[in-house]
Amino acid sequence: MIGATLLHSVSYSGSWGQAFLTLDQFVDKAAELGFHGLMLMAKRPHLSPLDYDAAARARLRERIASRNLSTVVLAGYNNLTADLEHSEVPHREIQVAYITELARLAHDIGAQTVRIFTGYEHPAASYTAQWNMVVSTLKECARRAGDFNVILGVQNHHDIGVGYQAMYDLIHAVNEPNCRPLFDAWAPALHGDDLTTAASRLASQATHTTVADYQLRPRYRYQPALVNYTPETPYVQAVPMGEGFIDYSSFFSALEDGGFTGSIAYEMCSPLLDGGDLATLDHYARRFLDYMAAFRQSRHAMAGLIP
Question: What is the pLDDT of residues 132-158, one digit of tens each?
Fold first, then answer.
């Protein structure tokens, strides 16, 4: 069964003009709303390793524990294929150092997992070269994270390995016990994949998934010579949980049927349909908790656990 419900601090980071809470205020907010744990943005304005020394890390760990928040995932922000046109700059080493420091930070605050990305495809190298570089870098990062007894979780977000088949291949190629997929529904839904098939493929390996729901808004560009419009890539609009096009019921069911018992985090990581004031953010977060409660009740009923 799906485990703890987490709230991602990026939701209250002000990154898209929405209401901003400090990290301490966010910890209190997540507990107040009724979440089991936290997903913490590991960069400014929240949990940057540059801003949290040993004493600050200890205070944060104590605050999290005092709010009875039992599960913590650290959300890293990296791009392993960055700036390939300038080979004299050791970007891979820089990012390995960042990810290693995130593992240390996770250990210090009691987080179980560090979320990272792969890389965006770069025109300066072939796909195969970038794939091999990502695999070798993830191997090194996983081994270094293992020294701090944390899971290195790869989210299916950046170009390399974003397809669910490719993500399966990537984790298999890395072949480190603490390198696991943090598999989300968003990408395969936008790819047009069958979510049950995708979730079933990664369920037994995944330890966490991050959730947000969206509606598609068609876009068009006017062509004067044709007196007509040509279609553009649709805009993806964030909406309350359960009101979008992503079939989360099928996705969650397939995860559970495949053996997934990990955590699930809700994030508001783009402009919301209803605006970004604090009341709206809280409303969306509560809608997610309501959705998960209804899903769990439905699954229990199907299993015959409730009348």
Answer: 999 999 999 999 999 999 999 999 999
